[in-house]
Write a structure and sequence with these properties.
It is built from 7 helices and 5 strands; from the N terminus they run E-H-H-E-H-H-E-H-H-E-H-E. With 145 residues, it is of the alpha/beta class. It has a single domain, classed as 3-Layer(aba) Sandwich (Rossmann fold).
Length: 145
């Protein structure tokens, strides 16, 4: 059943999209800004603490701008417990041929936990390959350049 205008859509936000949003010279900056501006008021942006950590590291020179954005944004940073880590590790076993970073694994877990396949990412190759535990593919909201 399609999600109407009042329906809350959980939308995952990956590191690359946040980095592109903060770094004005990033090749995806304008696309991310436009996408975020087009989101409905009922859309809930969600991410995980490992993504926040990864952003803080990558955006070292823009760290203040990143944390200002994070604190003022509508992004919900979702926590998880060790049982969730077990689920992530189990999922990762299906991709032994790939180097999966932990932040990506947490987003796959979060997608399953929040029953969503919507993601804002610049990591097209990986998120086109990854499947949710129910084998559903991700729906990448950010168009490629």
């Amino acid at each position: 059943m399609p999600c109407g205008a009042r329906c809350v859509r959980n939308i995952l936000v990956d590191t690359g999209a946040i980095v592109a949003l903060i770094r004005e010279r990033d090749s995806a900056h304008e696309r991310v800004v436009a996408l975020f501006a087009s989101l409905r008021g009922t859309d809930q942006l969600i991410t995980t603490w490992p993504v926040v950590t990864e952003c803080a590291f990558v955006l070292e020179l823009h760290r203040t701008a990143f944390f200002d954005w994070l604190l003022e944004s509508r992004v919900e940073v979702v926590d998880f417990d060790l049982q969730a880590v077990r689920s992530m590790l189990e999922w990762m076993k299906g991709y032994r041929d790939r180097q999966i970073d932990f932040a990506d694994a947490t987003l796959v877990w979060l997608a399953a936990a929040r029953n969503t396949d919507l993601i804002v990412t610049t990591d097209y190759r990986d998120f086109r390959t990854y499947r949710l535990p129910n084998r559903r593919a991700f729906h990448l909201l950010l168009p490629e350049a």
